């Protein structure tokens, strides 16, 4: 996991110097080293390294046999099989890095090589006078692009490296490749992404594919752990990862990490139970509310977002990642993506039929690079920690996103007063009495969004802070100051104002997409705004 920057066009020494300065803004993504490859008049590749695979070697840019050079942010999980095939074809490797297969594939296959990859990536490559940039299908790895006033194209892992150099910039779309001669095109095609699906009538193989997704993400030459909130998603990841780690090394013990505002926070209580049940070496971190408020500017800077749920949830993850880094852990597995794939947010109960339910899951998955995977990547990489997301494994998605939505979708009548039937299909896949992976109380725990689970006082404190610092006059003039994505609450105004200071201009603002739950009267993103949430049910009694 790293930070990359590439510039293509009339690159000279002066432009290279600008690119090197811009690359320094990505240093948090790669504290273990940096590298540059420069070809005058064609382009420059710059890299900031977080050393995970073959830390002693594998420095980037990487070079092939035939003059190719490449920088990569991400992980290639099928690199061993690709390497073996390339070696059979006569290719020689200089390191054990998973990234090195990419430069050889690029030389051998051009832009077609991206279809061979099982992994997550933002990659830039060049050879002679040609070049290529590509992003993984779901956008797990961030990537932006823009053009400067001289016409040169810039590509970067984060927006902050482009804002001072480009006349315009955008989010690089997931599943796309950009080449010098072919321009921008989609390379990743799936019928479910376009809403055309021949539905599977059962979920056979779901557990097996998920276990395989976790197994491949244990690939690491540095210490690895798991984020554990005690909710269904992270608990499934942690339980299976703990089993797989112990299977590989019976004496090994997986580290798990949780955060909350106090010892009675919903997530901390549940995570404690899960950790004891599955036998992880468990760590708890407390989120001081004042410290969290003090981190608002930093988190807007790192996440490059003013989306309310992103900011709310990023601060606890940001603080937890700092602790994880200090423990010497560089890689963590996380549960992002499950709610989008299986319709796990409580608002999904109110979908108008299975087809509407399915369309919303597809829309949520397609936009994850604006929300949860953006948060997971940037909150952790702010401290040089890599987050891996097995629920977004491509083989797992090809199964999970084609299951008949009527099997995924719980009926309101089935939900019960506590709303605990969300993701019932996923729960059932792991509810084997002969193989109890999790305690029943955790397996059927109500959905808590991360910003709620760390402690219900956290969101209230953020709202109170916004009420105190944003005046009524400022808020009344919000539509004049922010005609694009006008904030509708003082909390939203606060984040939007911080973003505008750090990333001025409409181009930057259009790189953000706000997340708003559908099918419920209260548009607040907190799960507690939904009438099926346990806290709302108790109030109604």
UniProtKB/TrEMBL annotation:
Residues 2-183 form the Glutamine amidotransferase type-2 domain. Its EC number is 6.3.5.4. It holds the Pfam family GATase_7. Pathway: Amino-acid biosynthesis. It comes from the Bacteria. Transmembrane segments: none annotated. The keyword rRNA processing does not apply. It catalyses: L-aspartate + L-glutamine + ATP + H2O = L-asparagine + L-glutamate + AMP + diphosphate + H(+). Keywords: Amino-acid biosynthesis, Asparagine biosynthesis, ATP-binding, Glutamine amidotransferase, Ligase, Nucleotide-binding. One of its GO terms (molecular function) is asparagine synthase (glutamine-hydrolyzing) activity. Residues 522-541 are annotated as: Disordered. Gene3D superfamilies: Glutamine Phosphoribosylpyrophosphate, subunit 1, domain 1, HUPs. Belongs to the asparagine synthetase family. PANTHER family: ASPARAGINE SYNTHETASE (PTHR11772), ASPARAGINE SYNTHETASE [GLUTAMINE-HYDROLYZING] (PTHR11772:SF2). This is asparagine synthase (glutamine-hydrolyzing). The gene is asnB.
